[in-house]
Every structure is written in C-alpha cells, then in structure tokens.
C-alpha cells in the first residue's frame, strides 16, 4: 500500500476544526488540573488562576486561522498567571508551546521570526532565574525547530501529491496514446482485409459471369471462391474487432507466415495463377513480424488483382541467417517506380515493415516484365 494516501488522510484528520477543539480542551484540562486540588491551608485557589489557565489554552481553537494572535494571547495569559497570590504553582506552557509550534509551521518567515524573538525576549525579562531562562530558551528553540520540520514535511507531502497527480495524468495520456495506436492498427488491418477480399470477390464475380455459359464448372468454382473469401474476411474482421471487447473474451489468433500458402490459394483463380515458394531454413520470427509478413503479402496480392492485369504471380519467402525477405512478383503491366507518396496500399506496406525494424521497396521487376514488392523483416534477436 502506498504511504501517500495514508499521509493525505492523516493531514485531513489533523486539519479538521474538531482536532483543534480537542487539542485546546486537552491543554486547558492539563493547565487547570493543578487548580482542582485542595490547598494545604484549605482556602480555594484565586479565581484568576482559572481564567489565566483557560485563557492560555482555549485560543488554540483558532490557531490555524490566526496563529500569531493566538500565540500572543497564550503568552499574555501565561505571563499574567502569577499576577495574583494564592494560585497553584505551575508554568502555563502547554498552550504557549502549541501556539509557538503552529506559528513556526504555518506563518511566513517575516512574521514568525519577529514573533519568536519577542516571545523569547519577553520570557527572559520575566523569569526569575537564569536556570529557568536557559531551559525556556532551549524549549522554545526545540518547538520552533519541530514546527519548521512539520512545515517541510507538509511541503514535501504536497509535492508528492502533485507528482502523483502528474504521473496519473501521464498514465492516462499514455493509455490514450496506446489506444490510439491500437485503433490505427485495427484501421490498417481492416483496410488490408477489405481491400484484398473485395477485390478478389469482384474479380471472381466478373469471371464467373463470363464463364457461366461456356464453363459452368469453373463458374461454380469462382462463386465458391467468392463465398470462401467472404467468410475469411468476416473471420479476420471479427478477430480484429475483438480487441475492442472485454479482455476476458477469447480471441482468434492473428494470421502469420504459415498462412501464406492458404492466402495464395484463395487469390488464385479467374485467370490468375499464384504460387508460394520458400527457400532457406525458417528462423524465429517475432509475432508482430509474422502478422506484418501476412498483411504485406496480402496487400501486394491485392494490388496484383486490382492493377497488374497479370496471369501469374509468385510469393517468394527467402529465409536468411538474420531475417526473412518476402517478394511478391507478377508478370503484368506493372506500375510506377518506387513506393508512392500517397495511397494506403504500398505506404501501408512500408509502414508495417518499418514498425518491425525492417524495410520495403516496390517497383518494376529487373528480371522481366511485371512488378515486384519486396520486404525484409529481421528475426527475433537480430539487429535491424
């Protein structure tokens, strides 16, 4: 448990007006108690003793609101206690010391220092012996030091409370930023899924309509592919949107590199042949990089379906000692050179690769007609 809430609770408790009233009552009882005894001569104590004892402690009720006037009243009644004869011999220091402590802990320096100086000077002028004067000065200085220590502790508590509030605000801001990043990721994934799936469904639907008379079997296969693509898109969207629900609800796993052959099979059809090949020994790929590899390939194949006009496409996975190189090539008409400055598709590929410590490029193929999208993702523990 943190000490800060306890500290704040104690501060609130001691700051209550009832605590000052109880303190004043306790000091008054302590100073009147000697006057409740019966003198040796049987005569009652002088009434002034009761008035002075009460006057030197009851003002403590207002010690927080007017610390210096309360100190003056307590000191004045304490000094005048011995102004009459036949009173109980006692020093009226309880109320005075509490008032001095309050002045030291709550008053400004230009107020408390003169007040303490006057108090010490008045005490030295009215005491009867050097011994008493010395003890009085030591007592006043000690109480003043305790008051200043309390002021420092109170200031430190206020700093800690402010720091805790600032940390809480920063925590909320960090949580909001994390939520914003998660919403951005979900939006990017939804764009990839919808763009890919809808493009495939449109191509398959157009091909099925053309082949429905000449090749009914191929048309039926195209319509089956449309249904499969739609179901897969719904499953992926449900998985992504599940992060917006309660944490205790089960979530389906995100697609990874192992799902790329199935992705290639779904894209193939309607005049487009897609192959998926792999070279090298697969290494430990971070989970985020595995998802990024799938989404990068998905977006690249979507661009092939939508823009390339290709008959063949290939997904090449090249595992190296420190990373995975993904290449999606086609034999279509190609596009411009390099990654564009606008558009969500290829820019999303570059952002996904960079987020995993990798890099991406796109442009016309160097080994023949068509277009190539390439991305390199580092393995777990490898230096990007």
Strand content: 5-15%
Widest sheet: strand ordering:
1-2-3-5-4
Number of strands: 5
- As residue ranges, the low-confidence spans are 1-11, 335-343
Task: Chart the SSEs and their pairings.
Elements: H1 3-14, H2 17-32, H3 47-55, H4 67-80, H5 94-106, H6 109-126, H7 130-211, H8 216-241, H9 260-267, E1 273-279, H10 287-308, E2 312-319, E3 323-330, H11 344-355, E4 359-364, E5 371-378
Short synopsis of the structure:
With 384 residues, the protein is α+β, with helices and mostly antiparallel strands. The longest helix has 82 residues, at 130-211.
Structure description:
- This protein is of the alpha+beta class.
- Among the domains are: 124 residues, no CATH class; 128 residues, Histidine kinase-like ATPase, C-terminal domain (Heat Shock Protein 90).
- It has eleven helices and five strands; from the N terminus they run αααααααααβαββαββ.
- Strands 1-2-3-5-4 form a five-stranded mixed beta sheet, with helices on one face.
- Strand 2 and strand 3 form a beta hairpin.
List its salient traits.
384 residues; alpha+beta; Heat Shock Protein 90; rod-shaped; disordered N terminus
């Amino acid at each position: 448990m943190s000490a800060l809430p306890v500290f704040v609770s104690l501060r609130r408790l001691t700051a209550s007006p009832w605590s000052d009233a109880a303190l004043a009552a306790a000091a008054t009882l302590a100073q009147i108690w000697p006057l409740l005894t019966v003198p040796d001569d049987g005569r009652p104590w002088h009434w002034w003793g009761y008035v002075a004892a009460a006057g030197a402690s009851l003002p403590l009720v207002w010690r927080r609101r007017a610390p210096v006037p309360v100190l003056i009243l307590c000191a004045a009644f304490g000094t005048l206690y011995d102004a009459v004869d036949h009173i109980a011999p006692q020093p009226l220091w309880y109320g005075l010391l509490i008032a001095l402590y309050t002045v030291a802990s709550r008053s400004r320096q230009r107020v408390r220092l003169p007040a303490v100086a006057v108090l010490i000077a008045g005490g030295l002028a009215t005491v009867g012996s050097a011994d008493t004067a010395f003890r009085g000065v030591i007592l006043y200085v000690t109480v003043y030091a305790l008051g200043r220590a309390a002021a420092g502790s109170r200031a430190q508590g206020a700093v800690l409370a402010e720091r805790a509030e600032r940390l809480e605000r920063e925590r909320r801001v960090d949580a909001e930023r994390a939520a914003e990043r998660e919403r951005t990721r979900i939006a990017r994934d939804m764009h990839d899924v919808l763009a890919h799936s809808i493009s495939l469904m449109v191509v398959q639907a157009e091909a099925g309509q053309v082949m429905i008379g000449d090749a009914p079997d191929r048309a039926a296969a195209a319509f089956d592919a449309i249904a499969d693509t739609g179901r897969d898109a719904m499953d992926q969207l449900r998985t992504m949107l599940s992060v917006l629900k309660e944490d205790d609800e089960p979530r389906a796993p995100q697609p990874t590199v192992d799902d790329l052959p199935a992705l290639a099979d779904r894209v193939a059809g309607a005049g487009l042949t897609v192959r998926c090949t792999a070279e090298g020994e697969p290494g430990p790929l971070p989970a985020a990089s595995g998802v990024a590899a799938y989404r990068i390939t998905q977006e690249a194949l979507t661009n092939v379906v939508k823009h390339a006009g290709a008959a063949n496409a290939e997904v090449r996975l090249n595992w190296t000692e420190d990373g995975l190189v993904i290449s999606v090539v086609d034999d279509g008409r190609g596009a411009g050179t390099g990654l564009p400055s606008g558009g969500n598709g290829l820019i999303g590929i570059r952002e996904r690769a960079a987020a995993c410590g990798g890099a991406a490029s796109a442009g016309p193929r160097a080994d023949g007609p068509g277009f190539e999208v390439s991305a390199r993702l580092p393995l777990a523990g490898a230096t990007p």
